[in-house]
Amino acid sequence: MSRRNFLKTAAAACSGLAIPQKAFSARPVLKLGYLPITDATPLLVAHGLGYFSQEGLEVERPVMVRSWKILTESFLAGKFDLTHMLFPIPVWMRFKRKFPVKVLAWDHTNGSAVTVRGDSGIHGFADLGGRQVAVPSWYSMHNLILQLGLRTQGLEPVIRPQSDRLGPGQVNLFILPPPDMPAALLGKKIDAFIVADPFNALAQTRFKAKIMRYTGDIWKNHPCCVIVTGQPLIDKDPVLVQKAVNAIVRAQVWCRNNPRETAHLLSRDGEGYLPLPEKVLIKVFQDPKPGELVHPDWKPSRIGFQPYPFPSATKFILEQMKVTRVEGDTHFLEALDTDLAAKELVDDRFVKKAIEQMGGIEAFCDCTTATPYSREEIVEIN
User: Fold this and answer.
1) N or C: which end of the chain has fewer CB within 10 A?
2) To which H or E segment does residue 27 belong?
3) Is the pTM of this model over 0.85?
4) Residue 372 and residue 382: Cα distance in Å, rounded?
5) Distance CA 15, CA 253 (A)
6) What are the pLDDT digits (tens) for 247-262?
């Protein structure tokens, strides 16, 4: 038996669901899209281990695309039923484009970093003045967190052609697809990038780049990508949506308990969802080295898995988006009532039920039993 088949069989046996259920013939074949980043892990693991089929769903092999722009446009065009999205993107979709997207759950926590060349002399946000920094999307947690850090140092984020001269207190931001970032850093076309793994790990492993700061070391256990679908699918078949969320939450539990196996399954040595070897991905699923941490008391993992969309985080993101510089018109953000927008954007009914089926939110985080579905957002930037 091959290792990949062993993983599928073992995962099913441990869940007590060793025999997959036959998909309901009346239901559509679900189409999933993703970027080749570890943010997509629960979606890919749920497919790779057969969790969707065990829920009675028929799901095509997820389709990989290279950029957030392509994934966003494909989802808006109806090419994908379910996907992961950087949290600010569905905010833009719903309140700017008036598209009926719904956030169903968090896909993961942390999982990103600011990466620089090993010889760059950049050690913190204060050293980014006058530099060129790539972000994966204007509407990304990366752009939001990066600008949080720059503002603490009195630096001004600007969006200009790279040929323009920058002042010492200015940091030029521009968009690059995640797969292009490591090579651009090596070629000195940029001074730094902030993005999801595995591209930070790839730059470390192949190009001797260094991590300037993990994002989970700035905002404790922050959300990054979320699971989204359209309101029409929820209205048409809420049972299908529940089953899909069940599979994704189960996958998150498995990933928490099996980090090395997760790296293998995703890698080109396993199911081939990500075009990288297992040895690079193992680095992602291991905790950062102690010397790389600014807040070791948090004990953050490089990437974590916790599915509940805490309202406090949604509100914080909406507030920060109002002061984060992006290209294009952002007037739609000014009129948003944060509390109302958070309730309109997120539908947590399905993920709550899935979490309870997995033993409660205590399986994912150290949450107080009195108020398990609330928390305080902790952000510290030195």
Assistant:
1) N
2) none
3) yes
4) 30
5) 11
6) 999 999 999 999 999 9
